[in-house]
Structures are given as structure tokens and as C-alpha cells.
Amino acid sequence: MNSRQRRGVILLLLSVLCAFGAFAGVLSVISDVNSKVGPEVTAYQLKTNVAPYTALNTGQFEKISMPERWLSTNAVTDLREVQGKIAVTQLREGSLLQTDMMVAKPELRAGEQEIAIMIDAATGVAGKITPGATVNVYATFAAEREGDPAQSKVIVANAKVLDVGKLTALEPDRNGTSFQMTQAVPITFALNTLDTQRIAYAESFAEHVRLALVAPGSDGTIRPGDRTYQLDKDK
Is the full-model pTM beyond 0.85? Predict the structure, then answer.
């Protein structure tokens, strides 16, 4: 073997050694990345926007995989968790589904029935009332006869809110006159028969119906003498 051949063999061996070195380097990087990232787990993200208080279903989400160490402790990894749940806030497309984004849908108890009425979005809801909340329902009535005082009444105390619907723009009626409310939200209550009748009466005959949120854990009981208010009482 002459000197030129020896140089060729040496260069070939060096090339092979460099190739093995590069391959070992790549394996080392991959191993390092895997050690930092860890195994992947299943998670779910939203395929579309979901409005607040909307019932959730499996078709609203898509399955993804991501490193377990990057997954938050409250991330949903089993879609069976959305059964019987509603969104508690606006859910955005592409967001990772987490348990604090949803709550169980309130259910009726024995002796209760559902009734829904439209409440002025500006004065009656203001974004603070959510399913499961407890509210007092106030109604204001004009004087029945000239000279009689107008009244404000607590129609129902401690009413349980089952559902809060979507904001709705009200249109003029058939006579061309506008409603007093320009935007309203349908609120569904769980009430006994008498309170259901009171709510229906207030929606039909009251000038305004408003909701007052009762603080969680507080006693919202109202004394009989405090259920009706007239301005002349403050004189």
C-alpha cells in the first residue's frame, strides 16, 4: 500500500469516526430533551368559542397530546368530566379545557318547577348573576289609582337561579312602540308553585323587575314589614 492509499484509508476512518461522533451527539440531545420534557399525556382543547352558561358536550373539544410536565393540575384528561356541566365563562377556541372552566348544571328539587323571564341586562343582571346564584326579586308597581303611592315589592326572596341565557336585543312590538328594555337576558329560576306565580305576575304587571344578588352563605330572609316599600315611608 503506497502513501496515497494510506492517506485515503486514514481519511475514510476519520470520516467514519466523525459520523459516529455526530450520531452520538444527536442521540445525546434527544435523550436530554426527552429527560426534560417527559412522557406525553392526553388533553383537550376547544374547537370553537363557547358562550357562558352553555351546556358542554364532547363535540366542542378535540383531543391533543402534550408533555405531562407542562399540563396544569386542573387540566381535563377525560371528556366524561364535561357531562352535565356548563361553561362558567366565555371559552375561547384553542383554549385548554380545565376543570375551573365548568360547573355542574343545577337541577330541580322535589316540589320545584322552572320558570324563565326576561330581565333588563343593564339594571337587573350586570354580569354578576350566574347559574347556582341566589337572588331576591324586586318589582316596582305604579299606583293603581290617582293619588295612591307607587310601590316596590320583594316578590320572591332567595330565588335559585338555574340558568342565565344569552343577551338578547329587544325589537319594537307590532304597534311600532319600543319596549322599555333595549337588551334583556332570560333568567331561569327553580321555584315552588306560589313563588312561580309571583314571578309570572311581576313579569306581566310590574313596571320593572330587578334582581339583587344574595351573598353566598348569608341569610336572605326578609321581614314581612320590609317586603313592601313606599317613598312616603322615608318622610
Answer: no
